[in-house]
From TrEMBL:
Residues 16-58 form the DUF6533 domain. The keyword Lipid biosynthesis does not apply. It comes from Pisolithus tinctorius Marx 270. InterPro entries: DUF6533. This is DUF6533 domain-containing protein. The keyword Transmembrane helix applies. Pfam families: DUF6533.
Length: 290
């Protein structure tokens, strides 16, 4: 049974409102930790990146949700769609940058790995930028909000960004698993395999949740009705912002330098990024910027 445009618009608006509610609720319940561990400490680069990810993402989510209810002309709706695509691209670029830094620190500042990750990111960003800039849709009329209709060919091209993000997330997860198990073997001699597994568990939770949402969003471009194609984009954005913010907060509880810091041994609270060395030196916190 087909669903009319009005019903599709209601479903999409409801999804957007639910995603925004989840994001803002999580923001409120973690605000005390943010004030304690980030606002009250010196503003290092990691704190600035945290703010950019969290608050630019919140602005994007609020704007995208509000525009689902605002009535505007087709011309203005198309203009807003271009603006929204730029913000989405920026938000995803920030998230990817954070995980490049995380992996770079995890591997002890390996320059070759950094070059590989940057090259891979640029290779993935090129088709993403093309898909966002070249594809056009039609603004739906006689329904509330800015709702775009995409034909099958356009929707297929617009699926490229979440597909590229899935590839990037998979790469980061594989690198994390490889490093964690490699260190876990060496850590057996120190009787700390449980702490190693904490790092793997945290990365696995992020990957599974974000990957599932991204895969569901990709499927909407191929099988969902016209107005619901890409309808889970706002959900994937809110989930990614929430997960990255929580991962960074976990690290800032231990180290002011945040994702730019790494330990010579793993602690249970330093979940977001860690370096393991064979040295038996203390718990000092050098940074990859040193």
């Amino acid at each position: 049974m087909s669903i009319g445009y009005e019903e599709q618009a209601i479903i999409r608006s409801s999804i957007g409102f639910a995603a925004l509610t989840f994001l803002l609720y999580d923001h409120l319940i973690t605000l005390a930790e943010e004030v304690t561990y980030i606002w009250a400490h010196p503003k290092h680069a990691s704190a600035i990146l945290f703010f950019v990810n969290r608050y630019l993402g919140c602005f994007l989510a609020v704007t995208q949700t509000v525009m689902l209810f605002v009535i505007m002309s087709p011309e203005r709706c198309i203009q807003y769609t271009h603006y929204r695509r730029v913000l989405i691209f920026m938000n995803q670029a920030i998230v990817c940058t954070l995980f490049i830094i995380r992996t770079y620190a995890l591997y002890g500042g390996n320059k070759r790995l950094l070059a590989f990750l940057l090259f891979t990111s640029l290779a993935l960003a090129s088709p993403v930028a093309w898909s966002l800039a070249r594809q056009q849709g039609t603004s739906a009329t006689n329904i509330p909000g800015c709702q775009m209709i995409y034909n099958t060919n356009t929707a297929t091209h617009l699926a490229i960004p979440p597909e590229a993000l899935c590839i990037f997330d998979t790469l980061i997860f594989v690198l994390t698993v490889y490093k964690t198990f490699k260190v876990g073997i060496r850590s057996n001699a120190h009787s700390k395999p449980n702490l190693v597994m904490l790092l793997l568990r945290d990365g696995a939770i992020y990957f599974v949740i974000v990957a599932m949402v991204n895969l569901a969003n990709i499927l909407t471009f191929f099988v969902a009705p016209e107005l619901l194609r890409g309808g889970l984009t706002i959900v994937s954005i809110c989930i990614a912002i929430t997960m990255v913010s929580r991962l960074m907060l976990n690290l800032h509880k231990t180290a002011d330098a945040g994702i730019f810091s790494y330990r010579k041994h793993l602690t249970s609270s330093a979940i977001f990024t860690t370096q393991f060395l064979d040295s038996e030196e203390g718990w000092d916190l050098p940074t990859v910027m040193d």
